[in-house]
Design brief:
The chain is mainly beta. It is built from 1 helix and 9 strands; from the N terminus they run βββββββββα. The longest helix has 10 residues. The chain is elongated, with a radius of gyration of 18 Å. The chain starts with a strand and ends in a 7-residue tail after the last helix.
């Protein structure tokens, strides 16, 4: 499927389960749509002229996939996104507040599933989002808003974390190896169970005024 749409309100089941390649969706409204299992490859959702991203507010994105897409400034607020894939995308300034990547089994038992990899998430908003034990590697997180978010147990390896406030979210048991950690201060961040590589540990110690020999 190859489309060029502008300013269109997408029907609730219009693209459910479809595979859509090399298409443009400028100023399109996907709010409330069911995109379960839908695959977008090489698609553009960001309109440079209006500087508007796609509106996915309250959409069902269960097992949906975005690959090599421009999702800059996209509105992903309140989406249902268990099993979502966002790979090799641009998603600067995207808003994920209220997004659920979670499968509730009981009120106390649940798990998360998301695959967000090799994507530019600079200045994206993940305030209070829960992304535990997810694949989140090789992303750019520069300036991302993460107040109250939980990333515990996730693979954040190979990431870039400039202008990033580690103190405002939960990163326990995360894999941070091979990442540019920016201003990570071990005195204000709970690093229980976190994986770091030798080079990162030396950098962190040097910032504390400790010299490691050998």
């Amino acid at each position: 499927m190859n489309l060029a749409l502008n300013g269109k309100k997408i029907g609730r089941n219009e693209f459910t389960g479809a595979k859509i390649e090399n298409s443009t969706f400028y100023n399109c409204d996907f709010s409330g749509t069911d995109l379960t299992g839908t695959e977008f490859i090489g698609c553009q959702f960001y309109d440079r002229e209006s500087q508007q991203g796609g509106n996915f507010n309250r959409a069902i994105l269960k097992d949906a996939a975005f690959k090599n897409c421009d999702l800059s400034m996209a509105d992903f607020r309140n989406v249902t996104a268990l099993g979502i894939e966002i790979r090799d995308c641009r998603a600067q300034g995207a808003d994920f507040r209220g997004a659920s990547f979670m499968n509730m089994i009981t009120t106390r038992t649940w798990f998360c599933s998301a695959y967000i990899t090799k994507t530019n998430l600079s200045y994206a908003n993940f305030t209070k989002v829960v992304l535990e034990k997810c694949e989140l590697w090789e992303n750019r997180w520069n300036g991302a808003q993460i107040l109250g978010a939980t990333f515990s147990g996730s693979d954040l390896s190979g990431g870039e974390f400039a202008s990033f406030d580690w103190r405002t979210a939960n990163f326990t048991h995360c894999d941070l190896t091979n990442s540019e950690l920016g201003e990570l201060d071990v005195r204000g961040t709970d690093l229980e169970g976190v994986k770091l590589d030798n080079y990162q540990v030396i950098q962190i110690m040097e910032r504390l005024g400790i010299t490691i020999i050998g």
